[in-house]
Automatic annotation (TrEMBL):
Organism: Caldicellulosiruptor saccharolyticus (strain ATCC 43494 / DSM 8903 / Tp8T 6331)
Ligand binding (Zn(2+) 2): C276, C279, C288, C291
Name by which UniProt lists this protein: PP-loop domain protein
Keyword line: Metal-binding, Transferase, Zinc
Stored InterPro entries: Ncs6/Tuc1/Ctu1, Rossmann-like_a/b/a_fold, TilS/TtcA_N, tRNA_thiolation_TtcA_Ctu1, TtuA-like_LIM_N
Length: 303
């Protein structure tokens, strides 16, 4: 097996592209894919200040490294969600990468800073820890980006994530989610910062190969709450299809982005946006869920 670019011995085969690469040419391919995605969707340019959300896993660590190496103006943000030892270990990985490479990092600790506890909230509101956690993360990404004058919030979502999310949304015809699933969510309100996914066309396997080749430390374990998540089942189903027919995930996602998504556009435009009466961040209700969470947790502490 020879590298399609330099004809030396190849080290990785990417069946969906019908291409194999040596390590050096893989890195070229990887960085090229990321910069192509950024340009294609006009995510940001070198003048923009980007907030990269980093969890410590392979995907976000790859995102951080590649954006820095490509010369973008990136500040990383890590959120400690209070998920036991998993959160402590991931924070260490992120902090160590920042200090070794002398990179700017914002750390938010939801317990220390806001008194939030996703387990208490989950019990009180009878919602899953993931749904509470998701609301908190989305709020903080946007708030920190807005307050800090950032142009975009970048996340490490990859092709496997996006295809699995799409499958889940299609299976239950979640029109609102389908309308909002894209590599770029543009700014629809002055206080809603653009969200971008520069790795949306790269697979988990490619991100893993990228961090291994660059000797980047990352947290190997997944969040304990991801076990049994439906998204994992969707990923397994898609992996089977991909094995039989390489390129399935890419065709599914790209086909939706090019031909399907526009049919759901008017659904998202109907959402009425307003500002939270407590914090002023954008919400669809009178008070945003983050402020309600803070009140619930602080009230529980007092009683
Ligand atoms: Fe949060 Fe659930 Fe993801 Fe864990 S798996 S980080 S609880 S959304
Ligand atoms: Zn609020």
């Amino acid at each position: 097996m020879k590298c399609v670019r330099c004809k030396q011995k190849a080290k990785i085969l990417l069946k969906r592209h019908n291409a194999a690469f040596c390590n050096e040419c893989f890195l070229y391919y990887y960085r090229n894919q990321v910069t192509k995605n950024i340009r294609k969707y006009k995510m940001f340019d070198k003048k923009d200040k980007i907030l990269a959300v980093i969890s410590g896993g392979k995907d976000s660590m790859a995102l951080w490294d590649v954006l820095v190496k490509e010369g973008y103006n990136v500040v990383a943000m890590y959120i400690n969600l209070g998920i036991g030892e998993y959160s402590n270990r991931s924070q260490k990985v992120v902090e160590s990468f920042a200090s070794k490479n002398n990179l700017p990092l914002i750390v938010k600790d939801i317990k220390k800073e806001f008194g939030l506890d996703i387990y208490k909230l989950s019990k009180t509101l009878k919602r899953s820890p993931c749904s509470i956690c998701g609301s908190i993360k989305r709020y903080l990404f946007n708030k920190v980006a807005y307050d800090g004058g950032f142009s975009a919030v970048a996340t490490g979502h990859n092709l496997d994530d996006e295809a699995a999310t799409l499958l889940g949304n299609v299976l239950s015809w979640e029109e609102g989610y389908l309308a909002r699933q894209a590599p770029v969510l543009p700014q629809t309100h002055p206080k809603l910062i653009k969200k971008v996914k520069p790795l949306y066309s790269l697979t988990e396997r490619e991100n893993l190969y990228y961090v291994l080749l660059n000797k980047i430390e990352f947290l190997h374990e997944e969040c304990p709450h991801s076990v049994g998540a439906r998204s994992i089942l969707f990923k397994e189903v898609l992996n089977k299809l991909e094995e039989e027919s390489p390129g399935t995930k890419q065709r599914f996602l790209n086909g939706f982005l090019e031909k399907g998504r526009r049919h759901f556009q008017d659904v998202s435009e109907k959402l009425e946006l307003r500002e939270c009466k407590t914090c002023g961040q954008v919400t669809t209700t009178e008070e945003c869920s983050f402020c309600r969470f803070v009140k619930i947790c602080n009230h529980q502490q007092e009683t």
